[in-house]
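Fold these two proteins, one after the other.
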Amino acid sequence: TGEHTGNMPQETSSGLKTPSLFDM
């Protein structure tokens, strides 16, 4: 999901948008 960062919860919340930041 990528909520580990928590920088953009709105993006991770959807799970559709996964920037390189969360991809790491």
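Now the second one:
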Amino acid sequence: MDREGFVQQVDRTAPKEVAESYLMELILRSMLQVVRRNEFGRPKRCKMHDLLREIGLSISEKEKFGVVYDGKVEIGECESHQARRLSIQTTKGDLQSYSSITRLRSLFVFVNGSVSFSNTLLSKFKLLRTLDLENAAIDVLPEELGTLFNLRYLNLRGTPMAELPKSIGELRNLELLDISETNIKELPSEVAKLQNLRHLNMWSKFIADIHNFELVRGMQVPFEISKLKKLQVMANIEAEGNIIKQLRSMTQVSRMGISNLKEADEQNMCSSIQNLKLLHHLCLMVNNETEFLRVDALRTPPPQLQKFFVWETRKCTALVLLTSKPNIFVVALV
């Protein structure tokens, strides 16, 4: 996802496809090296040669585009750049030292040790569009998070956080929220106010023993989540209450994962899935060995479906039909 809107639509080509073409050009020019590819051979992770990285950082600082703080210089030197993007790769635990860089558009924290936000720090970053705290040892975000009106991208993946502040609902421009692999079990109802939200990632860690039927654990979501009409990615949610029925109205969703499914959910689940015409990635899971996920009613899959992952398929007769379609990549875990 383009966090700051650098990539624009070209003619009828969507920004995502334009960005992918830029990435491939950088790879072909050997400016980036592919580290990992997905099952279709597409690049998933890249790295940059050390020399190119140093040149890039030098230009970035000169143009006030961004700066990296790695402890080799004083914090004051970073502040003097007044860069719009800051990557913190070492800290003594207090982020308050950076509060004077008020022009920040993006803040990345790559720190293994414990760090904390003061109640006033976030309120100083009024222009912040990207806040990336992936794997940082931050267990609490202050309610002042809601003052970041311009925030588009919030990444909390891998943090020990157990709950989101209630003010999350004030981030009306938020487009991506990633709370995967955290200690958060339930999404607060305030998230339903995020009318511009497009990507919602909230799956738990993969569990080593796949036979315990908890390969991936989803999250409980509020009933009102179906009101988010721009949501495209939602992975993973727990099948609780009437949420399965509500999914049928989320016709813009292209990627979805559902866990804790029961045999009794089959009819509603298949009915909802068939209504999601833009769906291209689907993952279905049960969390109990007594449940059988047959998906018999899913005989006409969504036309855009490319990837279909199923956990527990002992009675899945429809799976034979799906595997016969050459454009669908099916993984069945039994």
